[in-house]
Amino acid sequence: MRADDVYLAGVGVHLPPAVPTAHAVARGDYPEADRNAAGYRSVLVAGDLPAPDMAVDAARAALRHAGLPADAFGALIHSTTYHQGPDGWSAPHYVLRETLDRPISAVELRQGCVGMISALELAVHRLTADREHDAVLLTTADNFSVPIVDRWRAAKLFVLGDGGAAAVVSRRGGFARVLSVAAYSNPGMEALHRGGERLFPPGITRGISLNFEERSDYWRAQWAKGVTPPMGHLGECVAGAADRALADAGIDLAKIARVCHVGFARGPLHAIYLDALGIEPERGTWEVTSRTGHVGAADPFIGLEHLWRTGEVGPGDHVLLIANAPGMEAGCAVLEIVEPPETEE
Q1: pLDDT-derived band of residue 211, with 50, 70 and 90 as boundaries?
Q2: Which domains does the chain have, with CATH numbers?
Q3: What is residue 223's predicted lDDT score, i.e. its pLDDT?
Q4: Any idea where the Beta-ketoacyl-[acyl-carrier-protein] synthase III N-terminal domain is (predicted)?
Q5: Per DSSP, what are the bridge partners of residue 168?
Q6: What is the pLDDT of residues 117-170, one digit of tens each?
Q7: Predicted model pTM
Q8: What are the residue ranges of helices labelled H in the chain?
């Protein structure tokens, strides 16, 4: 989908303290062989700070950056990958009350780690259709510091990091023009992240933890029995989303200065993202994600905030935001930086 006259007017992040992976190995939390293979230097750990409070902090930073009045906003979209608080409670409206405090729609988007890019796509649609308001606030945050989740061993693809990010999407201008947003899915691979779990009662109500490795083990066992697992490669979804977004933006990958990707471990990052896109690591954001871990849906915007604030991208540069989620689905956005970072006085 091509976007017309839509911008990112503000971006903000909340980054909890980083725990060196060497410390996790010394405590016995993280196998040393996994650390050596993954390449992470540290992972963000929020302790007992609620995820919605991290989203609020990131949102306030993005709103300060954007400088738009609260009545310019028509909606808030809060993306999550894990539980936010009490059942039957609305984290999006908590974030709304603590930020814009306006009588507008606040929606929770459960689109996994591609959530913020999916939310950006929804925001573009809304701003195109609804001319009454000029902005949408996007937020996300997750905290995996709960006993039922082992952040260090839940997946070989990544180590789970905590944190939040936010962005203001606006028709009134901003630091980056949104050129396009696109998605690509392979629903035939859906069962890979379901494994052998039954759908009801939900696993969390039975004390079953978030553990992708156990689900992968299930399919390995099935394959050993002669049952073929769902076939496909997530890299094909990543490449498909990027191809669509680039075509809609009317540019090719050679014009992309930097790619803001998810915080996968070194090997999967290459296999699923860098190799699939045909780019060298220096054009990605491993410099950031190797210090944060995989921070849910926040990763691409944490990378974007870092690149822009540090001046690693500037006016005229094109940036690709890309992420994936169970389903399998990948999303991609193409941005053009139009303003330099603010200078501190």
Answers
A1: confident
A2: 7-175 (3.40.47.10), 179-186+232-337 (3.40.47.10), 187-224 (no CATH)
A3: 75
A4: 108-186
A5: 10, 137
A6: 999 999 999 999 988 999 999 999 999 999 999 999 999 999 999 999 999 999
A7: 0.94
A8: 21-27, 32-38, 51-66, 91-97, 115-129, 212-224, 234-249, 266-268, 275-277, 286-292, 299-309
